[in-house]
Specification:
Strand order of the largest sheet: 5-4-3-6-7-10
Helix content: 25-40%
Structural class: alpha/beta
Strand content: 15-25%
Radius of gyration: 20 Å
Largest sheet: 6 strands, mixed
Order of helices and strands: HEHEEHEEHHEHEHEEHEH
Number of strands: 10
Number of helices: 9
């Protein structure tokens, strides 16, 4: 095994077994209950259970029926393509691996079922639902080792595939840099979805580069350009538009999210989801 990956896994395991102690994933899932079914509101039902988003779409009040949950189904879905390459390296891919590994170890520690799903342009990799460290660490290695340059993922196809594969209502963590429009409404109808946005700080605070040759990681095309203040302003305007649409989409479908930068401590960001 790659020594850098092994160090990443050891760090992740230490953080889970120490820093995450007392913050188990079940706290993310309402009051320790799991989604059972969606049904039309009946007289006498608790109005606090009404799902207003779905009710508005269907024109009738619908509620989410819950049942006691003793074992969570934790799904970590990593959406990966060459957009994870930024600047001179693949720090976003490494950070995504770290996040997925921490979530896997946390699920195992809490005795929950863990399923890892990796989507790339050319393949889909899935672990069986597991409580075994071996499968979690194999998934971690797959995320770390996958070559992503010159690849583009079709997110809509990946989301449809994920929806078809997940038969049991689950707590689904979607990992991506979310630099393009992504529709998670289908998943959110049946599962509790949490989006983890992986970014490099330089993507959000770009510097003037002057005359430069830019290489597109997804298709290897190169462009000679001058990247100055005007280019930065145009870029930031598009990024703001993208992220505002993303935030609106998450709010509409009750999807929680957290942004993790490549230089962040992952656990401190994840703990914020438990509050």
């Amino acid at each position: 095994m790659n020594t850098a990956l092994k160090a990443l896994q050891l760090k992740a395991r230490h953080q889970v077994y120490t820093l995450l102690s007392g913050h188990n994933l079940s706290k993310l899932h309402g009051e320790g209950y799991d989604f059972s079914e969606l049904r039309e509101y009946q007289r006498g039902d608790d109005i606090r259970k009404i799902n207003w988003t779905i009710s508005a779409k269907l024109g009738l009040p619908y509620i989410k029926e819950l049942h006691a949950n003793r074992e969570l189904s934790i799904v970590v879905a990593a959406f990966m393509d060459a957009s994870l390459y930024f600047g001179s390296g693949n720090a976003k891919q490494e950070k995504m691996t770290e996040v997925a590994t921490i979530l896997g170890y946390a699920a195992q520690q809490n005795n929950d079922l863990f399923t890892g799903m990796q989507y790339t342009q050319d393949q889909t990799h899935a672990t069986p639902p597991t409580k075994q460290l071996y499968h979690i660490e194999q998934f971690s290695q797959t995320l770390y080792d996958t070559s992503l340059l010159n690849s583009t993922l079709t997110h809509s196809t990946a989301i449809q595939d994920l929806f078809k594969r997940l038969h049991k209502p689950s707590l689904v963590f979607v990992l991506s840099d979310f630099l393009e429009e992504v529709d998670l409404s289908l998943l959110a109808q049946k599962h509790e979805v949490i989006s983890i946005i992986l970014r490099d700080r330089a993507e959000e605070v770009p510097k003037k580069l002057g005359e430069v040759t830019l290489s597109h990681p997804q298709d290897a095309k190169q462009m000679d350009t001058y990247f100055g203040q005007r280019s930065i302003e145009k870029y930031l305007a598009k990024l703001k538009e993208n992220d505002e649409k993303l935030a609106e989409h998450f709010a509409r479908y009750d999807i929680r999210s957290v942004k993790i930068f490549t230089d962040d401590e992952v656990v401190s960001k994840l703990v914020g989801l438990f509050v």
